[in-house]
Structure formats: C-alpha cells, structure tokens
Amino acid sequence: MDLKGRDFLKLLDFTQEEIAYLVDLAAELKDKKKKGIPVDNLRGKNVALIFEKTSTRTRCAFEVAAHDLGMGTTYLDPAGSQIGKKESIADTARVLAGMFEGIEYRGFGQDIVEELAEHSKVPVWNGLTNEFHPTQMLADLLTIREHFGRLQGIRLTYMGDARYNMGNSLMVTCAKMGMHFTACTTAKYFPDSELVEKCREIAAKSGGSITLTEDVDAGTKNTDVIYTDVWVSMGEPDEVWAERIRDLTPYQVNRKVMENAGEQAIFMHCLPAFHDLKTKIGAQMGERFGITEMEVTDEVFESEQSLVFEEAENRMHTIKAVMYATLC
Length: 328
Description:
Strand order of the largest sheet: 7-6-5-8-9
Shape: globular
Oligomer: single chain
Radius of gyration: 19 Å
C-alpha cells in the first residue's frame, strides 16, 4: 500500500484497509525493535515538531521514532514558534517544508493543521488538535489487537467528556474498523450530532455501531474496553473544574464499572491520568474539592486490567509507522 506523501490529519481521511495497514506496519516495526533489528531507511532526513501544546508522550514518541528511522528532529515549543503570531500558518508551512521532510503539529484547532497541510509540500502529521487525535488512535488499535487478537466486533465504551478529540476520534475509529462504540456520559457531553450521524453511516458499512447513553450499567455491561480521559483539557479555564467534577463523577471508572464490564474487559487511558494526588494539579484539585481521584480510581489504574503503559509505548511504534509509510 502506497501512502508516500500523504498527510495524517484525521482517520476520517483513511480507509479501513489503510488504517489496518498502518497498524500492521507498526506491529512489524515494534517486533523488529524488540529484536534489535534496525530500520533506519530515512537517514539524512529531518522533521519539524511544532508543539503549541506540550506533551510527554507525543514528543518522546515522535523523537524516538524519528531517531530510530535515522532522522533528525527540531522541536519547536510554544515559545520557539512564530506560527500564527509573527508568521502566518501558510508561510510557516512553506518555510518548514523547504527545510524538513515532514512536519508534526500538536496544538489547537483542526483548521490549523489542515491549513499547514494545504500549504506544505511535505507530509504533515497531526499530533493532537482540539477535534482529533489520530496518532493516539493507532496506538489504541495496536494495543487492543495485541490483547484480543482482533479489532472487528470489539466493544469500546468511552466515559467522560466525549465532545472533543478523544471522544470524536474513538467514535470515528470504531466506525471505520467495524467496532462498537458507546459514549457513556451525561447528554450535554455527547459528541457533535453531525459527526455522530457521519460515523453511523460509516459503521453501517463496516459492521460497527454507535451508541450514546447516560446509563452507566447499560453502557458498560459486557464491554471489552473501558476508556476514559481527563475531565478538563489543556487550555480550558480553571472555573470549569467544579462543573466537570459535578457532572462527570457519576461516570468515573471504578471497580463497580469494571466488574459490570466483566473479567475480559481492559482499561485504557491516553494519559496523563488523575488517579491519585501525586501530581501538582492533582494535589490542588484534591485540596480544592476534597477528592483523591477523578476520572479513574487508583485501584483500576493500577489493576491487571489496565493497559495504559502498553498503550503509551505503542504511541512510539505507531507514530514510527506513520512517518515510515508517508516518507518511504
């Protein structure tokens, strides 16, 4: 399958076969790395990493993956890039495309990464926007397939705020891959209705399904994957904390939820997770609201059903697959 020169902006742009190919390629590259077999076909090439929103996993995954492939990286943090400030998005794309073989963007609106891609002559990869998180989706698919041996027919329930990148992306991914997606949350946090309908059309052809429910028992019964994310995203004002904690506490992933899902169920989270008070923000929220855990309990996070760290490692292998496929 030839994906050379393609941008990687959202999974809506890719077929089921193309997504499966990237997961297969990631598995192959992971196996070779574990066996110490180098895959450095891209020596002499360089990629730019634009991070308007910082991230431990995404930066490390892109840098290690690029270095494994033989490439150099230039990291541009919020202070190191003039994108949209002193230099337009279009001009930034044309400048960087003259110096680099690929451009990663992690930041705000999907329109920004789309505009970068429109004006770039080299592949642009979406490391996260407000609307979509496609590299995380490939890591999740690889993790699920490693555990269950398949993707078709897998039942995934997302609990929490499903209006933004994770809820959107998981819904799209399940629809594309013939999986059954459930958003289990209060109705005000359901995904955009237009995207829901588009995903239902896709799922009707793939054998998947899309369900929206406020009922925790029904939404998590006998599901294969319980997935959640932080309740407040980067860049959101502090005043939303109280509202989110009030609205979403009934949708916390805890022992009761996992027992309802069943022994076969796994727990996934794109990280970071507020499962204890060992972080600065976690401690602040604990003092402010009198809580010790938020979207997931520490008991579940540290349980044998939790695959969050395998999932985190797979960010690197799947990002490597995206860069390899679009540059080779």
